[in-house]
Specification:
The chain is an alpha/beta fold. The chain has 5 helices and 9 strands. The radius of gyration is 18 Å and the shape is globular.
Length: about 210
């Protein structure tokens, strides 16, 4: 069964809206579009490139799809070549015309369609697509969660964990790495069960 990877850039206070550019997503009057740009460095760039190894499908929300479709077909380089040849699956409540080669609309029952993708692909990556990600969180419909957490606080904007999260256990699957400009890479796997509870007063403070 294939894996569904969610890849997100987020601020320390959890804002993941419009990291890439000023006009990416201005919903709610968001004034910090492109907040990631001053903090990108070669370490993060290398991590992003490495994370694409084995990727064989893209799964995108409609807004992110439109941004990608306007840019990547006209770009050059390794990422452009990869994205342009991969199959692309798009979640939308409407029936948009998908002009980017290899694009397919998921249909009205997106969670069921996403589950079906696991039988067709090994590594399906969700990049950005913050509104759609809330559906995946609510359905526990992901296998890996990769976060680049940046040392800025924006106070407002769309959050990684908004209102679609259900109690979920995650497992850190590789050492946390900080880049020279302070971006911290955290990669998790979905784990069984729901978070446990306890009484800290009963914990042996000696070890």
């Amino acid at each position: 069964m294939g894996l569904i990877h969610i890849d997100l850039f987020t601020t320390l206070d959890g804002v993941a809206q419009a990291p890439g550019g000023p006009e990416e997503d201005t919903d709610g009057g968001f004034a910090f579009g492109g907040w990631q740009a001053p903090l990108i460095d070669k370490v993060v760039g290398g991590q992003i490139d490495a994370g694409m190894a084995g990727m064989d499908a893209l799964l995108l929300g409609r807004r992110t799809y439109d941004i990608f479709a306007a840019y990547w077909p006209h770009a050059d380089g390794a990422i452009a070549r990869l994205f342009n040849r991969l199959p692309k699956y798009v979640a939308s409540r409407r029936t948009p015309s998908l002009e980017w080669a290899g694009s397919t609309l998921l249909g009205p029952d997106a969670p069921a369609a996403v589950r079906g993708l696991r039988d067709r692909h090994a590594n399906i990556h969700v990049i950005g697509s913050l509104d759609f990600v809330q559906t995946l969180f609510a359905e526990r419909l992901f296998d890996r969660l990769t976060l680049w957490v940046y040392p800025v606080l924006l106070g407002g904007g769309k959050k990684v964990f908004a209102d679609g999260v259900v109690p979920t256990n995650l497992r850190l699957i590789e050492p946390v790495v900080a880049s020279p400009k302070g971006a911290v890479l955290q990669r998790y796997a979905l784990a069984d069960g729901t978070p446990g509870v306890g009484d800290m007063s009963a914990v042996d403070q000696k070890g």
